[in-house]
Amino acid sequence: MKTRILITGLAFVSAISFGQKKEIKKAEKAIKSNEYSEALNYLNEAEPMLGSADNEMKAQFYAARGQALLGSGSNDFSKQKRAAEAFGEALKLDPNMQTQLAEPLQNLRASLINGAVKDQNAGEYKMATDKLYTSYLVSNDPSDLYFAASNAVNGKDYASALKYYQMLLDTGYTGETEEFVATRKETGEVEAFDNENLRNIAVKSGEFIKPEERVTESRKGEILRNMTLIYLEEGDTEKATALMKAAREENPDDIFLMRADADMSYKMGDVARYNELMNKIVASDPENPEIYFNLGVGSGEIGKNDKAIEYYEKALELKPDYEAALINIAVLKLAAEDKLVEEMNSLGNSRADNQRYDALKEERKQIYRDVLPYLNKALELNPNNPEVVRTMMNIYGQLADDAKYKEMKAKLEALEKQG
């Protein structure tokens, strides 16, 4: 009797196993036919019996679930996240599935990154952060984690930013990569290519010359700089100072770190040290426009707009076609109108108030006139920048220049149709 019970039990286990396998096979077949909802139904039927399955079958189950979720909701982050978790579980159970899952993992990562870019552009930094972190879990590519941290900073989610930055530091991430570049013969601009073969083809075409290999700038200094500024923002000067000291000792000549040290010194009220460090940064490479541009960015971030404009102007002296410097100068100059508008809105209707209003209105118009040469130059360099065109359209509207307003309006409409 005992033998019969044992044999019956074995038969029962076998039947369950067969049932699981059958449902998973049905799901896989449905996935190939793009019937993702049907596939998920089959997998839901198999799931209660999963406990008795071996790791290989469990891995097949989670791989199929990941593909079905991805197929049924390529733009649905909740499904993307569940797909990432399912793929992760499949690979944990059977690392040999890496090759089999290479394509769906690549598709999932692409979908997450594309979604994150849209969220970032729309100012949805929390969603962009979550998507990029999920992409990192899928790809193990630290650049995804770096951009997740950057979005966390933009969204003021400092706890996540510090966590991700620390993870990057713990893995030794620097962000340095080898680039294949060549100089466009017509413009003299150095451009990067995705790989050596594409660069070589471009050179053979005759449009490019001077093929070179270079290493991109390390992101470690920026990471430490951002961590330091976050600690300062949270009032933890002790951690900020300790982190900066350790970073500078490790990389005493790193310009990004030197700039971070200068920013920290300024925020802590040590103006003398700030000036000393800024002078050292300039002296490190006085003919490099990138140095002055980065100093302009740093000065703008700590509210020293006049100094920032000085640095951008110096960058333009060294590189007159520096589009980003032209645009940043325009942005900073336009920022000055905020105080004027605030005061204009606070005035009453007395004769003195009306006179003051007219004076402020003229100051505001002068700002617009000062900004236009920078925007015009930027538009010459890049005629297809819709934000520059939109800003110029609004300025011409404020200056009552109807002809120019209509010209920019038509150009903006044409650009928006293209994009």
TrEMBL record:
Leader sequence segment: none
Stored Gene3D superfamilies: Tetratricopeptide repeat domain
One Pfam family matching this protein: TPR_1
InterPro entries reported in the protein's UniProt record: TPR-like_helical_dom_sf, TPR_rpt, Ycf3
Keywords: Repeat, TPR repeat
Protein name per the record: Tetratricopeptide repeat protein
Domain of life, per lineage: Bacteria
PANTHER family reported for this sequence: TETRATRICOPEPTIDE REPEAT PROTEIN 6, UDP-N-ACETYLGLUCOSAMINE--PEPTIDE N-ACETYLGLUCOSAMINYLTRANSFERASE SPINDLY-RELATED
Residue ranges crossing the lipid bilayer per the database entry: none
Organism in which the protein naturally occurs: Aequorivita vladivostokensis
Keyword Repeat in annotation: yes
TPR repeat start and end residues: 64-97, 221-254, 289-322
Keyword Transmembrane helix attributed: no
